[in-house]
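Team,

Forwarding the record for the chain on the shared tracking sheet. I've put the sequence and predicted structure together so nobody has to dig through attachments.
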Amino acid sequence: MPYGMVFALAVMATIMAVPIVAILTSHMRAVLELKLQHRMQGGSASEAVEALRREMAELRDTSTRFDVSFDTALQRMEERMSTLEQRVSRADKATPEAVNINRQA
């Protein structure tokens, strides 16, 4: 084969290979970028999930404290009502006697 023909084939192969190599390297770079992005998001996603877990635990604690506080206040109100009912009951029992004493006088 004459050297001119070999040289022409080599030049043609090089010209055709440059775009193919460019496409392959571009694809490899895109794949690597996607993998890196996935790794970075994977870390931030797990951090976000952990932050949500902490926030949910805080909300549970807060709601438990409010529930206990509400129950305590309700018990105090029930005790006060019970005491008031006892006082009213005693006053009702004592009132007829006081009325009778005033009428006799």
